[in-house]
Amino acid sequence: MGTKIGCIGGGNIVRAILSGVALSKNYQASEIGIFDINAEVLADYRSKGYQTYDSIEELVENSEVVVVAVLPQIIRSIMPQVKPVYSDKNVFITLAAGISTEWFSENLGEDAKVVQCVPTLTAQVGMGAYAVARGNALTEEDYQKAYHFLTSSGIVEEMPTDLIDDIIPFGGAAPAYFYHIADVIVKEAVSMGIDGNTALQIFAQTMKGSAEMLMTSEESPKDLEKKLLLPGAATLAAINKMVELGFDDTWSEGIKACVAQAKNLGKL
To answer: Where is it localised (predicted)?
Structure first.
Protein backbone atom coordinates (compact mmCIF):
# COMPACT_ATOMS: atom_id res chain seq x y z
CA MET A 1 0.00 0.00 0.00
CA GLY A 2 1.33 3.43 -0.91
CA THR A 3 1.75 6.41 1.41
CA LYS A 4 0.96 10.10 1.08
CA ILE A 5 4.23 11.08 2.73
CA GLY A 6 7.52 9.18 2.57
CA CYS A 7 10.58 10.17 4.60
CA ILE A 8 14.12 9.24 3.59
CA GLY A 9 15.73 9.30 7.01
CA GLY A 10 14.04 8.99 10.37
CA GLY A 11 16.29 11.08 12.59
CA ASN A 12 15.60 13.88 15.06
CA ILE A 13 14.10 16.42 12.67
CA VAL A 14 11.72 13.89 11.11
CA ARG A 15 10.66 12.73 14.58
CA ALA A 16 9.98 16.34 15.52
CA ILE A 17 7.98 17.07 12.37
CA LEU A 18 5.92 13.89 12.65
CA SER A 19 5.20 14.58 16.32
CA GLY A 20 3.75 17.93 15.30
CA VAL A 21 1.84 16.37 12.40
CA ALA A 22 0.35 13.82 14.82
CA LEU A 23 -0.96 16.67 16.99
CA SER A 24 -2.76 18.16 13.98
CA LYS A 25 -4.38 14.82 13.05
CA ASN A 26 -4.18 15.83 9.38
CA TYR A 27 -2.51 12.50 8.57
CA GLN A 28 -2.77 9.05 10.03
CA ALA A 29 0.50 7.31 10.89
CA SER A 30 -0.37 4.64 8.31
CA GLU A 31 -0.32 7.34 5.59
CA ILE A 32 3.35 8.09 6.32
CA GLY A 33 6.27 5.88 5.34
CA ILE A 34 9.86 5.81 6.59
CA PHE A 35 13.15 4.51 5.23
CA ASP A 36 16.22 4.52 7.45
CA ILE A 37 19.42 2.49 7.38
CA ASN A 38 18.99 1.73 11.09
CA ALA A 39 16.77 -1.32 11.64
CA GLU A 40 16.01 -0.29 15.22
CA VAL A 41 14.79 3.10 14.05
CA LEU A 42 12.48 1.44 11.53
CA ALA A 43 11.17 -0.98 14.16
CA ASP A 44 10.36 1.94 16.45
CA TYR A 45 8.41 3.76 13.73
CA ARG A 46 6.63 0.53 12.79
CA SER A 47 5.54 0.07 16.41
CA LYS A 48 3.87 3.48 16.24
CA GLY A 49 1.83 2.58 13.17
CA TYR A 50 3.99 4.11 10.45
CA GLN A 51 4.73 2.18 7.29
CA THR A 52 8.38 1.31 6.79
CA TYR A 53 10.27 0.53 3.60
CA ASP A 54 13.29 -1.66 3.00
CA SER A 55 14.82 0.60 0.36
CA ILE A 56 14.80 4.17 -0.88
CA GLU A 57 13.57 2.96 -4.25
CA GLU A 58 10.53 1.31 -2.69
CA LEU A 59 9.70 4.40 -0.66
CA VAL A 60 9.95 6.78 -3.64
CA GLU A 61 7.86 4.52 -5.84
CA ASN A 62 5.12 4.34 -3.21
CA SER A 63 4.99 7.92 -1.92
CA GLU A 64 3.48 11.14 -3.24
CA VAL A 65 5.48 13.63 -1.16
CA VAL A 66 9.06 12.53 -0.45
CA VAL A 67 10.82 14.24 2.46
CA VAL A 68 14.58 14.02 1.95
CA ALA A 69 15.91 14.24 5.51
CA VAL A 70 19.56 13.28 5.22
CA LEU A 71 22.71 15.31 5.84
CA PRO A 72 24.10 17.37 2.95
CA GLN A 73 27.16 15.12 3.02
CA ILE A 74 24.93 12.08 2.39
CA ILE A 75 22.46 13.38 -0.17
CA ARG A 76 24.71 12.83 -3.18
CA SER A 77 25.09 9.14 -2.32
CA ILE A 78 21.32 8.48 -2.42
CA MET A 79 20.61 10.11 -5.78
CA PRO A 80 21.55 6.93 -7.74
CA GLN A 81 18.76 5.17 -5.84
CA VAL A 82 16.21 7.95 -6.32
CA LYS A 83 16.84 8.86 -9.96
CA PRO A 84 15.75 5.60 -11.67
CA VAL A 85 12.41 5.41 -9.84
CA TYR A 86 11.08 8.94 -9.32
CA SER A 87 8.15 10.05 -11.47
CA ASP A 88 5.92 13.06 -12.01
CA LYS A 89 3.76 11.98 -9.07
CA ASN A 90 6.63 12.70 -6.64
CA VAL A 91 7.05 16.04 -4.90
CA PHE A 92 10.34 16.30 -3.01
CA ILE A 93 10.80 18.33 0.16
CA THR A 94 14.51 18.63 0.83
CA LEU A 95 15.64 19.51 4.36
CA ALA A 96 19.38 19.38 3.66
CA ALA A 97 21.11 22.71 4.33
CA GLY A 98 22.83 24.18 1.30
CA ILE A 99 21.19 21.81 -1.19
CA SER A 100 19.18 24.00 -3.56
CA THR A 101 16.31 23.25 -5.90
CA GLU A 102 18.79 23.89 -8.73
CA TRP A 103 21.02 21.16 -7.33
CA PHE A 104 18.12 18.71 -7.63
CA SER A 105 17.52 19.79 -11.22
CA GLU A 106 21.17 19.17 -12.04
CA ASN A 107 21.51 15.88 -10.18
CA LEU A 108 18.05 14.36 -10.43
CA GLY A 109 16.44 15.89 -13.50
CA GLU A 110 14.99 19.14 -14.85
CA ASP A 111 11.50 17.77 -14.27
CA ALA A 112 12.10 17.05 -10.57
CA LYS A 113 9.48 18.79 -8.43
CA VAL A 114 11.27 20.18 -5.41
CA VAL A 115 10.52 22.36 -2.40
CA GLN A 116 13.64 23.42 -0.48
CA CYS A 117 12.76 23.71 3.19
CA VAL A 118 14.52 25.00 6.30
CA PRO A 119 12.83 23.13 9.18
CA THR A 120 12.80 23.83 12.92
CA LEU A 121 12.89 21.42 15.84
CA THR A 122 9.95 23.33 17.33
CA ALA A 123 7.70 21.42 14.93
CA GLN A 124 7.70 18.78 17.67
CA VAL A 125 5.11 20.79 19.60
CA GLY A 126 3.21 21.94 16.52
CA MET A 127 5.07 25.26 16.40
CA GLY A 128 7.41 24.74 13.47
CA ALA A 129 8.49 27.68 11.33
CA TYR A 130 9.37 26.56 7.81
CA ALA A 131 11.11 28.74 5.26
CA VAL A 132 10.58 27.30 1.78
CA ALA A 133 11.61 27.96 -1.81
CA ARG A 134 9.94 26.50 -4.90
CA GLY A 135 11.76 24.68 -7.67
CA ASN A 136 11.07 25.64 -11.29
CA ALA A 137 9.22 22.42 -12.20
CA LEU A 138 6.75 22.72 -9.33
CA THR A 139 3.10 23.41 -10.15
CA GLU A 140 0.75 25.12 -7.71
CA GLU A 141 -0.98 21.79 -7.10
CA ASP A 142 2.38 20.18 -6.31
CA TYR A 143 3.29 23.00 -3.94
CA GLN A 144 0.01 22.68 -2.08
CA LYS A 145 0.76 19.04 -1.30
CA ALA A 146 4.01 20.05 0.38
CA TYR A 147 2.37 23.08 2.00
CA HIS A 148 -0.42 20.99 3.53
CA PHE A 149 2.07 18.60 5.07
CA LEU A 150 4.32 21.32 6.50
CA THR A 151 1.49 23.46 7.86
CA SER A 152 0.33 20.43 9.80
CA SER A 153 3.12 21.19 12.29
CA GLY A 154 3.79 24.91 11.93
CA ILE A 155 3.78 28.01 9.76
CA VAL A 156 5.26 28.30 6.27
CA GLU A 157 6.94 31.40 4.86
CA GLU A 158 8.03 31.42 1.22
CA MET A 159 11.47 32.78 0.31
CA PRO A 160 13.33 33.54 -2.92
CA THR A 161 15.56 30.62 -3.83
CA ASP A 162 18.75 32.66 -3.55
CA LEU A 163 17.96 33.66 0.06
CA ILE A 164 16.89 30.32 1.49
CA ASP A 165 20.28 29.55 3.07
CA ASP A 166 20.43 33.06 4.57
CA ILE A 167 17.28 32.41 6.63
CA ILE A 168 18.77 29.41 8.47
CA PRO A 169 20.17 31.40 11.44
CA PHE A 170 16.73 32.92 12.03
CA GLY A 171 14.80 29.66 11.83
CA GLY A 172 16.45 26.27 11.69
CA ALA A 173 19.39 27.21 13.90
CA ALA A 174 17.53 29.58 16.23
CA PRO A 175 16.25 26.99 18.77
CA ALA A 176 19.87 26.11 19.58
CA TYR A 177 20.54 29.75 20.52
CA PHE A 178 17.53 29.75 22.83
CA TYR A 179 18.50 26.45 24.45
CA HIS A 180 22.07 27.68 24.92
CA ILE A 181 20.88 30.88 26.60
CA ALA A 182 18.46 28.87 28.77
CA ASP A 183 21.30 26.63 29.90
CA VAL A 184 23.45 29.63 30.88
CA ILE A 185 20.55 31.26 32.73
CA VAL A 186 19.59 28.12 34.64
CA LYS A 187 23.20 27.52 35.71
CA GLU A 188 23.43 31.10 36.95
CA ALA A 189 20.13 30.73 38.81
CA VAL A 190 21.34 27.57 40.52
CA SER A 191 24.58 29.30 41.54
CA MET A 192 22.42 31.91 43.27
CA GLY A 193 20.45 29.27 45.16
CA ILE A 194 17.35 29.30 42.95
CA ASP A 195 15.78 25.99 41.97
CA GLY A 196 16.86 25.17 38.41
CA ASN A 197 13.47 23.92 37.25
CA THR A 198 11.73 26.98 38.68
CA ALA A 199 14.13 29.27 36.82
CA LEU A 200 13.67 27.30 33.61
CA GLN A 201 9.87 27.43 33.77
CA ILE A 202 9.87 31.18 34.48
CA PHE A 203 12.37 31.88 31.70
CA ALA A 204 10.73 29.62 29.10
CA GLN A 205 7.22 30.94 29.77
CA THR A 206 8.51 34.50 29.58
CA MET A 207 10.20 33.78 26.24
CA LYS A 208 7.05 32.08 24.97
CA GLY A 209 5.03 35.18 25.84
CA SER A 210 7.69 37.45 24.37
CA ALA A 211 7.55 35.54 21.09
CA GLU A 212 3.76 35.85 21.02
CA MET A 213 4.06 39.61 21.55
CA LEU A 214 6.53 39.90 18.69
CA MET A 215 4.14 38.06 16.39
CA THR A 216 0.98 39.96 17.36
CA SER A 217 2.11 43.45 18.37
CA GLU A 218 2.31 46.32 15.89
CA GLU A 219 5.37 47.56 17.78
CA SER A 220 8.90 46.78 16.62
CA PRO A 221 11.28 44.61 18.68
CA LYS A 222 13.24 47.77 19.59
CA ASP A 223 10.07 49.55 20.76
CA LEU A 224 9.11 46.60 22.95
CA GLU A 225 12.63 46.51 24.39
CA LYS A 226 12.51 50.21 25.25
CA LYS A 227 9.49 49.63 27.48
CA LEU A 228 11.77 47.68 29.83
CA LEU A 229 14.85 49.90 29.64
CA LEU A 230 13.82 52.48 32.23
CA PRO A 231 16.48 54.78 33.72
CA GLY A 232 18.20 53.06 36.63
CA ALA A 233 16.33 49.80 36.03
CA ALA A 234 17.97 46.41 36.61
CA THR A 235 17.02 45.40 33.06
CA LEU A 236 18.88 48.37 31.62
CA ALA A 237 21.94 47.44 33.69
CA ALA A 238 21.81 43.92 32.26
CA ILE A 239 21.50 45.08 28.64
CA ASN A 240 24.24 47.68 29.04
CA LYS A 241 26.63 45.08 30.47
CA MET A 242 25.84 42.58 27.69
CA VAL A 243 26.40 45.21 24.98
CA GLU A 244 29.62 46.29 26.68
CA LEU A 245 30.86 42.68 26.54
CA GLY A 246 30.09 42.40 22.82
CA PHE A 247 26.59 40.88 22.85
CA ASP A 248 25.42 42.54 19.63
CA ASP A 249 28.65 41.81 17.74
CA THR A 250 28.61 38.21 18.95
CA TRP A 251 25.13 37.67 17.57
CA SER A 252 25.96 39.34 14.25
CA GLU A 253 29.10 37.28 13.78
CA GLY A 254 27.30 34.08 14.80
CA ILE A 255 24.61 34.69 12.18
CA LYS A 256 27.23 35.29 9.50
CA ALA A 257 29.08 32.11 10.48
CA CYS A 258 25.85 30.10 10.30
CA VAL A 259 25.06 31.32 6.78
CA ALA A 260 28.62 30.75 5.59
CA GLN A 261 28.62 27.18 6.85
CA ALA A 262 25.21 26.46 5.32
CA LYS A 263 26.45 27.61 1.93
CA ASN A 264 29.63 25.59 2.38
CA LEU A 265 27.65 22.41 3.06
CA GLY A 266 26.14 22.68 -0.39
CA LYS A 267 29.63 22.44 -1.87
CA LEU A 268 30.76 19.30 -0.02
So the answer is: Cytoplasm
